[in-house]
Design brief:
The chain is 38% helix and 20% strand.
């Protein structure tokens, strides 16, 4: 006796297919703020340890070296596609499939044979680099060890031997940040910046300056946030070269960059080109218990005032917290740590 239904010849895949060609470039806030990626253009085999205000990151390379700032393009492409799909109310998955040529074109990379070889090497470094950290993503602070991607594979090659379709499984850490919308939009000119240090400086400016008029950062802290292993005099020389180039060509996206008068700090000033977020203030509800917890971690502050600051900040930074309660209390705690009692 025949079955009442025909066989499901095309079951729904357990992966997300990238098919949006105009998705705005987006990056996760965690790795924009902290030095996850190497600035080197040569294999970087040095383990790195970073600590800042109670946050720790231990980064260990594989035999291929640490994942680089340019390798990050793959994550940016995947994050951009998934966020656009979520905004369109589409189902997404931790496993992402895309055409290699689409990624290469979207990230301003070469589509020659060498471009495909570099893409393969980048995926190997992303999968091989191991990170141990207590960075919070998706409202959870969990100490864990992971790769930036869990795996990558070439689904099919053309007759010429070039990869055609690629499948990447993102780490839980990255996927949690996507689902919590802990991401920021990047300028498309980010992919046109030549040096890894330029890209890193832009990421920091986008994260810390955002929509403000300016952001000032001391050279020592800036070097630490960039993850530069150079001596200070060499780091300052490299930053000076970028500043001189920007003063001549105004090429640095969204922000101008310059030294302070004593040259001990770098000042990023907004050019007014950062897109205004579509949501100006986060509107998610908070339970009454959140205010009680906020009073305990932000002694002396008006927790309703802090709520307004938090909602405006989430809107300006395009953040839609998955767990607003935890996110708000953490914001209040950080506010108090930076400013003390009113």
């Amino acid at each position: 006796m025949s079955k009442p239904l025909l066989p499901d010849r095309h079951p729904q895949a357990d992966f997300f297919v990238c098919d949006i060609f105009d998705a705005a470039p987006k990056a996760d806030i965690g790795s924009m703020e902290h030095p996850i990626f190497s600035l080197s253009t040569k294999p970087d085999l040095r383990p790195r340890y970073y600590e800042h205000r109670g946050l720790t990151i231990d980064i260990k390379p594989s035999s291929d070296g640490l994942a680089t700032v340019h390798d990050r393009d793959i994550l940016i492409y995947c994050i951009s596609q998934l966020i656009r799909a979520i905004n369109d109310r589409r189902e997404v998955s931790q496993v992402v499939r895309f055409h290699a040529s689409d990624l290469l074109k979207s990230t301003n990379r070469m589509t020659t044979g060498r471009g495909y070889d570099l893409l393969k090497a980048a995926m190997e470094r992303l999968a091989g680099t191991r990170i141990s950290t207590n960075i919070t993503t998706g409202g959870e602070e969990v100490f864990e060890t992971f790769g930036l991607i869990e795996r990558a594979r070439i689904v099919r090659k053309t007759r010429e031997g070039r990869m055609q379709e690629v499948e990447v499984k993102l780490s839980d850490w990255v996927f949690n940040a996507i689902r919590a919308r802990e991401v920021l939009t990047l300028s498309r000119d980010y992919f046109r910046l030549r040096s890894p240090l330029e890209r890193r400086l832009y990421e920091l400016a986008r994260k810390h300056c955002g929509h403000q008029n300016e952001w000032k950062c001391g050279l020592e802290i800036l070097q630490k946030k960039c993850g530069s292993g150079s001596q200070m005099f060499e780091f300052k020389r490299l930053v000076r070269r970028i500043i001189c180039s920007d003063q001549e060509h105004s090429h640095f996206p969204d922000y101008s960059i310059g030294f302070s008068h004593d040259e001990r700090s770098v000042i990023f000033r907004s050019r007014g080109s950062v897109p205004v977020p579509t949501v100006e203030m986060f509107e998610g509800p908070l339970p009454s218990s959140a205010y009680d917890e906020a009073r305990q971690v932000a002694l002396g502050w008006d927790v309703r005032y802090l709520e307004q600051q938090w909602r405006q900040w989430c809107g300006a930074e395009e953040i839609e917290p998955k767990n607003p309660h935890r996110h708000y209390v953490k914001f209040c705690q950080t506010w108090f740590e930076k400013r003390g009692r009113p």
